[in-house]
Amino acid sequence: MAHKEATARIKINKLLEEAGWRFFAEGKSPANIQLEPKVALSMQVLDALGENYEKAGKGFIDFLLLNDKGFPFIVLEAKSEDKNPLIGKEQARRYAQQ
Q1: In percent, how much of the chain has pLDDT > 70?
Q2: Residues 6+ apart with CB under 8 A from 42
Q3: Which of 36, 22, 37, 26 is nearest to 67 (CA)?
Q4: What gap in Å lies between CA 45 and CA 19, rounded to an integer?
Q5: How far is Cα 53 from Cα 9, in angstroms, rounded to an integer?
Q6: Which of 70, 65, 46, 64 is closest to 56 using CA atoms?
Q7: What is the pLDDT of residues 11-53, one digit of tens each?
Q8: Is 95 helix (H, G, I), strand (E, B) or coil?
Q9: Which helix (H) or strand (E) holds 39?
Q10: Taking a C-beta distance cutoff of 8 angstroms, is the pair 22, 30 a contact?
């Protein structure tokens, strides 16, 4: 993991924890963040991503936030500051659809 990416993840982790999300169980409250869960992408979705996207059959969600019943609730995709935020939004949307 590059230094810049590691620094960004530390900032995101801290912001999530400050907002009440948990990486680990605390007392009777279970963890409600999963890191990089694997998502299978269909060929139709890969084709829709275009030629510039890495054509892998599986992708990784950066952060998957779970609701109070432990079901997927929010797909959070982190991107570097030099990338258009809409790239991350569309990637997260496709992961959520899968």
Answers
A1: 71
A2: 98
A3: 22
A4: 32
A5: 22
A6: 46
A7: 889 999 999 999 999 999 999 998 877 665 555 544 554 544 4
A8: helix
A9: strand 38-40
A10: yes
| CA 50 remoteness from chain centre | 20
Residue 25, CA distances (Å) to 18, 32, 73, 83 in order: 15, 8, 18, 33
* Single-letter code of the amino acid located at 83: K
At residue 12, what is the residue type?
Answer: I
Cβ count within 10 A of residue 24 = 8
The set of long-range contacts for 63-68, using a CB threshold of 8 Å and a minimum separation of 24, is 63/12, 63/16, 63/33, 63/34, 63/35, 64/33, 64/34, 64/35, 64/37, 65/16, 65/21, 65/32, 65/33, 66/31, 66/32, 66/33, 66/34, 67/32, 68/32
Supply the pLDDT for residue 6. 74
Q: What share of the chain is helix, strand, coil (3-state, %, to 5)?
A: 35, 20, 45
Helix (H) or strand (E) holding 87: helix 85-97
